[in-house]
Each structure stands twice: as C-alpha cells, then as structure tokens.
Prior knowledge:
heterodimer; A: about 110 residues; seven-stranded mixed beta sheet; four-stranded antiparallel beta sheet; B: about 110 residues; mainly beta; about 0% helix; about 55% strand; globular
Amino acid sequence: GAVVSQHPSWVICKSGTSVKIECRSLDFQATTMFWYRQFPKQSLMLMATSNEGSKATYEQGVEKDKFLINHASLTLSTLTVTSAHPEDSSFYICSARDPYIQYFGAGTRLSVL
Amino acid sequence: QQPVQSPQAVILREGEDAVINCSSSKALYSVHWYRQKHGEAPVFLMILLKGGEQKGHDKISASFNEKKQQSSLYLTASQLSYSGTYFCGTEVRRDDKIIFGKGTRLHILP
C-alpha cells in the first residue's frame, strides 16, 4: 500500500512554545490530507481537512489559530500547534487518500510540560 | 455523525471467530475498517463501497448492508496478531471526510 510519513514521532516541549508536525505522502500525490487527534483509549477525532493550495477546513470546536495547517504541495502538509499548553498533549495522526483508501502516518506523540 | 460500533470489547481464544458491527444513522457511500495496535497508527483492512465493491484484506471479510447502513467485519480463525482496536469509519459522499466510531477492543488469548 501507499506510504505516509509523519515526523517527528515524539516531541516534548515547554508550555508556550510552538511545534510543527510534518506529513508526507511518499509514493503518491495527495490533494487532500487529514489531521486527527487521539486521546488514550479513545477514537480518532478529525481535526481538519487539509487541501493543497487552499485553506484547511476545520471541524467544529477546533481552534484555527492554535492548530495551523499548511498544505504547501501535493505531498506535504504541516500542522503547527501554536503556544502549546499541557492540555494539547495528545497523539496526532495525519492521513492521505490514494484514491479510495486513506493511509495513516505513524503518528506524533506530543507532550507539553 | 459518529457511527456506532459493537461490541465495545471482546476477548477470544486463538482460533475462535469474531464479528464486529458498525451502524450509521446516515446514508453511506462507503465504510472503512482499520486495526490499531497500542501506540501505533491505524492500519487499513477493508473498504466497502456502495454498490457492493470491496477492496481489502485476504484473510478478513466484511459485509455492507446499504439499506440498513450497517457493516460487519468478520475475523475467522483468529490469530494472536489480530489483537488490537478495530475502528470503522464512514463516508457519506465520495472523497468526503471519514468519521470513525469509538472502536472495538479485541484481545486474543493463546
């Protein structure tokens, strides 16, 4: 199957700093990528849909100014968690569709101290 | 709207069969099934499209009742490697976002 690469896999940061997470489709082009957030033993909650060349579409309740998404090319989307706080600690996972199947990255575990 | 999965959890012995169900209150275009192991990303298992087309895994089967907006995932002769949390995701239109259920935890005992 197609490969989606996500970096970093784990990041620990101080409260108030910003963290950037990268999501790349390695062997296919993805006009649309998705960002999910997952708390322990819970479901995958869709945060936003990232569209190449246009603004992301955020789900209800997700703060656009806190979670900045940029889909700069057909193979790269980034999620920046701005001014991170301990409550932002979570497992963030990206995915890309090719073309029917949605493939997931390995996820990024964010811990904010 | 989030699909409803049942059961929430199931424990089996190796070699036994399991069925996981997924239902939606909305008309669906497709149903997607994934398995996630602890600390890892979800892995694609199966997609069922409106009209009966299926794409997926050789050792796992699934059904999609379009009239009832229900899907079931069938795991036969379960192996230890089948342990994990199974998520169904539903899509109401082609190329739309996928909304995932709360998951079904499957634990296989030797």
